[in-house]
Design goal:
The chain is of the alpha/beta class. It folds into 2 domains: about 240 residues, TIM Barrel (Alpha-Beta Barrel); about 70 residues. Helices cover about 45% and strands about 15% of the residues. The chain has 14 helices and 11 strands. The strands form 2 sheets. An 8-stranded parallel beta barrel has the order 3-4-6-7-8-9-10-11, surrounded by 6 helices. It has a two-stranded antiparallel sheet with strand order 1-2. Strand 9, helix 8 and strand 10 form a beta-alpha-beta unit. Helix 1 runs antiparallel to helix 11. The chain is globular. It starts with a strand and ends with a helix.
Length: about 325
Amino acid sequence: MKIGNLELGDRPLLLAPMEDVTNPPFRLLCKQYGADLTYTEFISADALIRDVNRTVKKLTILAEERPVAIQIYGKEVDSMTQAAIIAEQANPEFIDLNFGCPVRKVATKGAGAGLLQNTPLMLDIIESVSKAVKLPVSVKTRLGWDAENKIIVELAEQIQDRGAAALTIHGRTRCQMYKGEADWTLIGEVKNNQRMTIPIIGNGDICDPIAAENAFNKYGVDAVMIGRASIGKPWVFEEIKHYFKTGELLSPKTVRQQVEMIDDQVRKACEWIDEKRGILHMRRHMANMFKCLYNFKQTRIDMLRANTMEELEEVFQRIIETWGDE
C-alpha cells in the first residue's frame, strides 16, 4: 500500500489515533511490536492555531517512531487549513483529517463525525487542506451519522475527488459510538468500487490475527487500523504479523513479560509528561491487562490506585511473585 510517496508494503497494520493514548512513547512501543504506521492523538485545529502548549506538544514526532501521521479535527475550512499548514511544519509523513470522532463534545459541535451531517463542508475542508499543503492528506470517517444515513459509498467517491490520498473507514455510524459489532460490508463495497483508486483502510473490531486476516481476504482492504485492541496489549501487531507469516498463533506473553512491558511504558509516560499525569495516563492501559488472572481483584485495585512509581513498583513485584510465569 502506498500513500503519496510512503510505501507501507503488503497488508500493513496501522495504529489508530486515540486521544490520551497515542502519545510518542506509546506509538514507539507499538512500532517496536510491528505497527507499520502510527497516528498522533487527534489535535484541535482551533487550539493549534491559538498555540496552546499542550496541543502544540502533540505535534512532537520522534525520529525512531516514523512513519507517523498527524491527525487534526475542526469544523471550519479556514481553521482546518491553517492548522494543517502548522502541522506540516512538524514534518509528518502525511496529514489526516478526522471526520469520525463520535464523542458528544466534538460531534454535536459540528466537528469530527458531526461533519457527516454537513458533507458539503467536509468536502470543502478536504479540498482546501489538500491544496494548501504539500504533504498527502488522508481522511478518517464512519459509515454515516446513523443507521438510516449510511452514506459512505457515495461519500467515498467525493472524498477522493476532492483530493484525499487515502480513506480510513470505521465500520460503525456515529450514533453507534463504539457499541455493537463493526459492519465491514460497506467498507468492502467502497473498496470494490471501480471508481476508487486511493487506498481504503478498514477500522473496527480488529483485535486478533483472525479478524485481521478476514478483513484483508474477505473485504479486500489495503490496510487495517487497530485502536482499542492495542490498549494494554501493544503486542497485538506482533501477534498478527506472526500469524500472517507462519499461519500459527504466537504464544501468549507471560505475566512477567507483560509486567516488564507496562513498567517500561509507565516510566516513559512519566518522563514524557510527569509522574502524576504519566501514571494517570497509563491507568487506562493497566485496566485492560491481567483480566484472566484468578484472585486479581484487590491487586488490580491497588495497581489502579497507585499514585507514585514507588507504589506501582511494589504492586508490579507482587504480580510477578504471584503470577509471573503464567
